[in-house]
Amino acid sequence: MNEHFREIIESLEPKFQELINMEPVKYGALSRDMPKRGIYLFSENNKHLYVGRTNKLRQRLQNHCTPSGDHFTATFAFRIARHQTGRVKATYTKAGSRDDLTNDPIFREAFEAAKKRVTSMDIRYVEETNPTHQALLEIYAATVLGTPYNDFDTH
User: Fold this and answer.
1) What is the pTM of this model?
2) For residue range 107-138, what is the model confidence (pLDDT) as tens digits?
3) Phi-psi region of 61 (alpha: psi -120 to 50; beta: other; left: phi over 0)
4) Rounded to whole angstroms, how far apart are CA atoms 17 and 39?
5) What is d(CA 129, CA 15) in angstroms, rounded to the nearest whole number?
6) What is the DSSP string of 86-149?
7) Can you tell me the distance from the alpha carbon of 102 to that of 96, in angstroms, rounded to the nearest whole number?
8) Dist CA 21 CA 34 (whole Å)
9) Nearest to 64 by CA among 21, 122, 142
């Protein structure tokens, strides 16, 4: 293995431990001095569900947790609604598109419920400013934790 890549990989575990050992918080109690860039983890009842990464941590968490979020901003809730309604795979036609799903009353109800659910979840985060380390840390955490809403599939 390339030595530089090995060093990056070996640096992931301490950051992962920092993430896991963080005392979880609710969206409404986010610290004013939270880092700007990093990865975040949503959990519910001690089950880890989703890992994401961002260069605007507070804003990204707000996007996930705002009841008025749409399918572009509240993407985690959108994934939950997809799973709950059995509409897991993305389509590239008008039928089954994101817009089409949000206009479907059954899906819209599942999406609204999922947004409320996400807002009440536990949140953990850790600073990571390097974009390569950030991407690898997201993949590492999702893999180790077995988060069901991270699939890393291309759409």
Assistant:
1) 0.93
2) 999 999 999 999 999 999 999 999 999 999 99
3) alpha
4) 12
5) 12
6) T--S--SSSTTSHHHHHHSHHHHHHHHHHHHHHHTSEEEEEE---HHHHHHHHHHHHHHHT-TT
7) 9
8) 15
9) 122
**Residues linked to residue 97 through DSSP beta bridges, in sequence order:** none
C-alpha distances in Å from residue 75, one per residue of 10, 20, 70, 79, 82: 30, 22, 8, 6, 10
Residues with Cβ within 8 Å of residue 70, at least 6 apart in sequence: 102
Residues 6+ apart with CB under 8 A from 15: 126, 128, 133, 137
What would the pLDDT profile of 57-107 be if each residue is shown by its tens digit?
A: 999 999 999 988 888 899 999 999 999 999 887 777 777 788 888 888 999
3-state DSSP call for residue 151? Answer: coil
What tokens appear for 138 in the block?
């997201």
C-alpha 100/C-alpha 129 separation (Å) is 36
CA dist., res. 16 & res. 147, Å (int): 14
Whether 55 contacts 140, CB under 8 Å = no
Q: What are phi and psi of 25, to 5 degrees?
A: -130, 160
